[in-house]
Design brief:
12 helices, 22% strand, elongated, alpha+beta, single chain
Amino acid sequence: MNSKLTSSQYQTICSQLGRVKLQLLYKASIHGFSGAAFHQRCDFHSPTVSVGYNASGFVFGGYTKQPFSLSGQYAHDDRAFLFTFSGEKLIKYPVATPGNAVRMIANAGPYFGEALVLVNGSKAVVHSNPGQYYNFPAAEMHGNDLNLTECEVYQVEETPEFEKPWRPMIWEAETRTEMMNSIMLYRPLVNSVSQVRVLLIGPVGAGKSSFFNSINSVFRGHVTGQAMAGSSTTSLTTQFRTYSVKNGREGKTLPIVLCDTMGLEENIGAGLDVDDIIPILKGHLPNHYQFNPSAPLHSGAHGYRKTPALNDKIHCVVYVIDACKISIMATKLEEKLAVIRRKVNLMGIPQLVLMTKVDEACPSVAQDVRNIYRSSYIKKMVQEVSDRLGVPLSRVIPVKNYSEQLELDMNCDILLLTAVTQMLRFADNYFDELSDQFSSTETKE
């Protein structure tokens, strides 16, 4: 389930309610435009924000601290309000009669007094009657277009802060410089390997390509966009791509290669085929290999490496997961990730998780990225990723990619560099394991 709210609209609504996040409970296009579907998903949850969308482009709705039910009664709420968006600006209409702020009707969706009802009569329509309980201009609220294209209901959840960060982090320019120098000076433990190869795997839109662009930006000294990235329902990456990073425009190439894959999709025959994972890990895939979701890679493909060297193989696998979509990750997608995890485990390749879009998931992080390790919500998301993907907490690294910014931010850089540092450390573990295996073989001989 994807939220229809834009990032800006999401943040604007949250800013009206304090230090909170929104958890999507009900989406009419998925669960049904009916009172029964709405109540099944939303009853006894509070506070909530309900949002309606129409074909005229209006985004509008209401907030209440009262839980919905099937009582048929009015509920008192002196903090309830209706709202609409005018561009990116939220226009708010406070409740005029608190004793009749919301009503619990079985055959309807969110019911704000008698003034505004979404999914009225279990149909994709709005009931609008401004005046007695809420005052608003109908044309301003919804443009007098009473047909709904979508209706969503979100639970409002507080995101309290920790007094002390749950992971220590030094947010100073010296830290950034030291990390950059450490990465530039890194050398793989095996002489035959010139660069650590890190494979990025994740759902469509999670931010794999954006992560490379962000790392490239840090070392170039300005925001770049070499890898194709953006918002799409299908993968923008259709080829297997390997990206090297340079220190500056004409500087030295860094000892790490980020390998980008087609995005994972929940449907069979769409997105990255899990059967392509093993050939990728073993180093068979050539750069620019064109993925075909309906046909796994075969040894006759153009450029196929039949005898790849250790330098061609993957030395660390990184799963890229959108923090905003963890709790609503489709079961089929989770199953695909589990299959991939098992394949990677069998090959003894270390694995990490990058949790992206933390600023969109948590308002306090959006205000200041240094709040990332003080946010209880981000910690909760890290725990959920750990549980659902079966990786230790220490292997889940939250990051913020560069997407909207035109200039670099030191604190954002530190998060990104922390992720790269962890990748190199885990690659060292892989090389150590190879050395142990080689030593063990020599001993037996």
